[in-house]
Design goal:
140 residues, mainly beta, Jelly Rolls, 5-stranded antiparallel β-sheet, 1 helix, 48% strand, globular, binds thymidine-5'-diphosphate
Length: 140
């Protein structure tokens, strides 16, 4: 993994190693090998309506690795003090989003697919869905 941009201590944009030959390109992501956590869950967002915005929550413990495997989208990350934005515009880019970070996703191109690798199974109790609650917990 090549570090492209550090947004916060536990949030950074990386370039994946790409294995390319005349047939095309391949990226392999491996839990606890080139990713900093074991993968417990994979989900992906696709078929978004024009102008759709997603996210608007933080996770108390979950770590995630986001890859826009097709198209592009913008991810905003907020640690309770600063807000940073990154344009995810290629399958060779991965964004590590650690815990206790508010995130918002927007400006999906038509046909965009955002794949997320997650460190834990889905657990609604891990979500903070209210921004003021997030600020209170983040500043503790
Ligand atoms: P949500 O986390 O609100 O999506 P986003 O943050 O991308 O806007 O999830 C939308 C719905 O999908 C919600 O009802 C919870 C459900 N869901 C699962 O069942 N499993 C999952 O792994 C995820 C991420 C969501």
């Amino acid at each position: 993994m090549q570090l492209l941009e550090r947004l916060f201590d536990n949030c950074a944009l990386y370039r994946h190693p790409v294995i390319a030959d005349e047939r095309g390109s391949l990226v392999a992501l491996e839990g606890d090998r080139n990713l900093p956590f074991a993968i417990a869950r994979v989900y992906y967002l696709f078929g978004g309506a024009a102008g759709a915005e997603r996210g608007f929550h933080a996770h108390r413990a979950l770590q995630q690795w986001a890859v826009c495997v097709a198209g592009a989208c913008t991810i905003l990350v907020d640690d309770g003090r600063d807000r940073r934005e990154v344009r995810m515009d290629g399958p060779d880019k991965g964004l590590l989003i650690g815990n206790m970070l508010w995130r918002e996703m927007r400006d999906f191109t038509p046909g965009a697919v955002l794949m997320v690798l997650a460190s834990m199974p889905y657990d609604e109790a891990d979500y903070i869905r209210d921004y003021d609650d997030f600020l209170r917990e983040a500043r503790k």
